Amino acid sequence: MRTGWFCGSSGERLDEVMAVYMSAGRSYTGLSQAEIYCHGGSEVVKLLLDQLLTSGARAAEPGEFTRLAFLNGRLDLTRAEAVAEIIAANTETSLNVAREHLSGAYAEHIETLRKALVEILAEIEASIDYPEEDISPEEHRSNADALSQLISTISALNKSYDSGRILREGFKLVIAGRPNAGKSSLFNLLLKQQRALVAPTPGTTRDYLSEWIDVDGVPVNIIDTAGLRLHSGQVEKAGQQVARQLVSDCDLLLWIVDVSRKRWRSEARSDLSHLKVRRRLLVGNKIDLLTKSLEDGNSDSDELIQISCLARRGFPKFVQRLARQVHSSMPDLTSGLVVTSARHRQKLQTAARQMKLAARLLRCHESPELVVFELRLAADALDEITGKIYNEEILDQIFSKFCIGK
Amino acid sequence: MTEPDYDIVVVGGGHAGVEAALVAARMDRRVAIVTMDAKRLALMSCNPAIGGIGKSQLVKEIDALGGLMAEAIDATGIQFRRLNLSRGPAVWSTRAQADRVEYTQFVCDYVERTEGIEIIEDIVDGITVRGGSVAAVQTVSGRQISAGAVIVCSGTFLSGLIHIGEEKIEAGRMGEPAAYGLSESLRELGFEVGRLKTGTPPRLDGDTIDWSLCQPQPGEVPIPFFSCRSPRRQFDQVPCHLTYTTDETKRLVSANQHQSPIFSGQISSTGPRYCPSIEDKFHRFPDKESHQIFLEPEGNGTNEIYPNGFATALPRDIQKVAIRTVRGLEQAVITQSGYAIEYDYCPPSQIKPSLETKSVHGLFFAGQINGTSGYEEAAAQGLMAGVNAALYLEKAPPFILDRSEAYIGVMIDDLCTRTITEPYRMFTSRAEYRLALREDNARDRLFRYAHKYGLVESDEVEEFSTLQTRTNELVALLEKKRVRVADLGSAGERFQKADRVSLANLIRQPNLSIDEALALARGFDDRFQDSYEPLQRAAILIKYSGYLDKQQREIEKFKRMEGLVIPDSFDYRGIVGLKKEAIEKLARFRPSSLGQAGRLEGVSPGDIAILSVHLKRRGVVPA
Ligand SMILES: Nc1nc2c(ncn2[C@@H]2O[C@H](COP(=O)(O)OP(=O)(O)OP(=O)(O)O)[C@@H](O)[C@H]2O)c(=O)[nH]1
Ligand SMILES: [Mg+2]
């Protein structure tokens, strides 16, 4: 058993974890196996899981561990008797959960994707099994087009995974900036209570603070962080590491700058270049200290939102901008097309990857059996979400669409 | 117990029956073929051709397992060519036109020369079962022939009924009587019997065809023979011709559609979608104005032509007029009318992967009785049934090929897991491991079995291992040999950045055929002057290498599931958690492995998980 840091692909520390290694024959499955115990709630777990999946791990199928345990003779007769019932129930439940999720628009959508894929497969298979029926180059091109369309649909669906997460876990808003910029002041204002300590000395906030507010009906998790010093070569303090991590996982970053500082523009530019975030708003605080007003224009790409926490200026506009951002990252709830499971997302990614390979082969006029090879793996991936594919099904398609056969 | 008259009785002397008898005789069994006419073994009752896409792979597998079909067509073919050459080698498929009279003659001679096979001219109309095992067959002439095992290969003869317009003729093939008693006997034994339909086009007098209006399709040179052991004879190949139906054909056929038994309701059984009648084609694809018709010669000694694509059951007088609307057939004379034929089959959920019936020990079914169509499909089953009947008599475990090893495995597994609703024909798309199941590697896949069961001579096996070694050497050489891109001519244009490139890399380029790449390779190195076969085999392995590796991983996954055997006697009732539909399907098909169970429609992955748990438990409890 060891403790240590779970690091991301670029070496950033994600969580302090405990890891247990079990050699073959001593684990539940009988295979050599490792377990990782992490802190925190589903957020961290999700983060680590995602990291594992992107580095090549595979999510277990329902009941897979128990199946492995059986296949490796780890469960003896009496335990098997007992566990069999439980597994049966478990598998059934997990299947039901999956089925439930698969009812409605989401299922229909995946099913549509699969049908579209099977249709393309059938066309290409027809060209192999019935070469005399000469299938024209236009048809091949239309297959390639149909494939690209499928790929972009799947990519969009994959993006919904993030929206799905917001739906389950709330919208995560992180307030960050240099020390003393007024982060805690803004946090308190949004919360409408004096929750965070505000003081004129830089470095007042050392750990982070997390609270919930309501932005136009969306639950938003606001987090106040320790001031970041991205420019200095100094060793970061623990609070700053946490802040950095929080910034990289958030749905929206509010980067606070003190516009009374002379060089705030270039500082902001360089700070932001150090951070990788999907969405951010640049908030200029302490405008009450300025003698002449700032131009409303852009500082590079970011539009500056001007406020004063002390004088309570600029707030209506700020809140409006914030709400717009929150809403634009929310999934379209009416369509229901939300991927919520990491396993589904992984399958969808596999499907998309296989289709891209196939599309590339189609484009360079590679032999159709190879295109089919890649597409079948894509279909298998989709099947693992919805059900099963049968070759019969492809044949049915061939026969219903083309007049073939002598 | 007295010695039976024969070890094995084969019912029917078609393509399945012949392969079954030959292979069983080779395994030192005393065999009798009971058939109506000893002179008409392995008759080509429909299309005078062997092979084609998906089917040629079967023929090569039959050949690798010591069967006769490939040798027979090589000896009597009048035109050979490979289809799909513009695609990859996994889907290259050889097809040959046969001289149908000579083909049958060749097979008859071969069977006659084979020791241990006796031909009895008679019709089987009953099967006797004693204590759950097959004991004998009875014939219409009143004979009782006892046997240790019986293989039923009755083709379209079981209660065959021919339809031409409103005309109905009881026959197994045109001009030959149908067999009735056997279906009845099978029903009495508890078998479920269903009905299928197939059709055939009219035959034409070649002298009445205007060939100048048709497009000739010549044979391929050098001749692509099927068998690895037949002599490479040289001869002038006979061309086929391609022509098209006209607007007038469409009008006429559509106007008379109601007179076809297929539409009038006279035939209720399902026909194959892949080989539809001409009236079906115009009906189902009203947008298509014209259909291809291939004019195929039936042999050297005859002028008879088989218009492939014009199967029909329209009344005779309409056939006469309709055929004359096809380009080039304006004056054509029909020598035999087209017809549809209905026949009995036994839904193959009743057989095991060994082709033995689940309910009667020692009784095997092969060919059309299992719902398949095609000579190649029948022959392949016949061969497997023959081997397994012999093994059954030795009380040895059966010979079963899985889906990753052979098209034969794909076909039999499909039969054992799918509900057949139309005659089953092989397609390459049925094989999920298609890239690994090729014509060129049939022996790599199957020779060890052929050797194990004594189906091929051992010097043949040795000779082949030399070829395998040479293939591997060539693969290494082609990977190693690098040539200047500038020396590749136009083929080098695809390498923009590189200066040198390995020949293997050249072979892997899309849009460059293996033959083109090899022609270049030969120019670079004397070591590539081998005959075509080893070089081509090496190039194919290189071309597919990445894919084959990927496929191998899929195959391993598949094999793990296939390895989880479900005992024959397994009782699915009362298993907690299994859905009702799954239990019904499982009980009906009685799959032999967990993998096979998973392929049954209506059985979900969840059901399989539950089943695997119970199996494991069953395995722990001593029975
Ligand atoms: N003049 C002026 N002062 C402000 C404004 N907002 C915050 N301040 C002051 O700036 C100082 C720092 O404010 P905090 O909110 O603690 O700043 P912080 O970014 O949280 O600082 P650290 O936690 O130390 O990184 C306090 O003295 C605030 O009163 C503003 O809009 N105008
Ligand atoms: Mg603070």
Care to describe what's here?
The complex is a heterodimer of chains A (406) and B (623). With 406 residues, chain A is α/β, with parallel strands linked by helices. Helices cover 50% and strands 15% of the residues of chain A. The termini of chain A are far apart. With 623 residues, chain B is of the alpha+beta class. Chain B is built from 19 helices and 22 strands. In chain B, the strands form five sheets. In chain B, strands 1, 2, 6, 7, 8, 9 and 20 form a seven-stranded mixed sheet that branches. A six-stranded antiparallel sheet of chain B has the order 14-15-16-17-13-18, with helices on one face. Chain B has a four-stranded antiparallel sheet with strand order 11-10-19-12, with no helix packed on it. In chain B, α3 crosses α4 (100-113). The longest helix of chain B has 31 residues, at 532-562. Classes of the chains: A alpha/beta (406), B alpha+beta (623). Chains A and B meet through α2, α3, α4, α11 and α12 of A and α16 and α19 of B.
Q: What would you call the structural class of chain A?
A: alpha/beta
Measured by residues with Cβ under 8 Å of the partner chain's Cβ, the largest interface is: A-B, 54 and 52 residues
CATH level-four homologous superfamily name of the largest domain in chain B: FAD/NAD(P)-binding domain
Whole-number tally of structural domains of chain B: 4
The first-level CATH class of the largest domain in chain B is given as: Alpha Beta
Given as residue ranges, the uncertain stretches of chain B (5+ residues, pLDDT < 50) are none
SSE series of chain A: EEEHHHHHEHEEHEHEEEHHHH
Uncertain runs of chain A are 75-103, 388-393, 401-406
Bound small molecules, deduplicated: guanosine-5'-triphosphate, magnesium ion
CATH topology of the largest domain in chain B: the name is FAD/NAD(P)-binding domain
Category from helices, strands and their pairing of chain B: alpha+beta
Extended strand count of chain B: 22
Count the strands of chain A? Answer: 10
Overall shape of chain B: it is globular
Query: Roughly what percent helix of chain A?
Result: 40-55%
Mean pLDDT across all amino acids of chain A: 77
